[in-house]
Amino acid sequence: MQDIFDLIGRILLSFIFFFEAYDYFAFEQLNRRAMTIYGITWNQDFLLYGAIFLLLFGGLMVLLGYRMRLGAIMLLIYWVPLTFIVHDFWEEVPGTEDYRLQSLFFMKNLAIMGGLLLAATHVSGRYRLRRLFATTRVRG
């Protein structure tokens, strides 16, 4: 049962990163405008496509359980700065809708960071890519 829960957890954790990578690609101009609003004007192409790379490959590594520690670190490299730049609820007026919404998003991202830290220190279970390759016998 533990191996199945491990697989389901990796699937659920990785989906948010795939969705975010899709969003960055599909709505590239909107994301560039958002970057400008948040004061991120240095080399936007590099940062945007770098984020897509980290999200896709980090998410894939976590999903497949292959080099999961590296994948989790790649995702944290993206996720930590994003959380503190975009969801800065402490800049909002307490008690307002923006304060409430940004603080919820900030806490959600903290929970995702916790999941990534667990993934970085965890060896994935039976259902992982490396184990599949190690147990598959090819006859020639």
From TrEMBL:
Localisation per UniProt entry: Membrane
Transmembrane feature ranges: 7-26, 46-66, 73-90, 110-129
Main localization, broad class: membrane
Lineage top rank: taxon: Bacteria
GO cellular component, one term: membrane
Lipid metabolism is among the record's keywords: no
A Pfam match: DoxX
Keywords for the protein's UniProt record, in alphabetical order: Membrane, Transmembrane, Transmembrane helix
Membrane topology, as annotated: Multi-pass membrane protein
Protein name: DoxX family protein
Naturally occurring in which organism (per UniProt): Neolewinella litorea
High-level lineage: Bacteria, Pseudomonadati, Bacteroidota, Saprospiria, Saprospirales
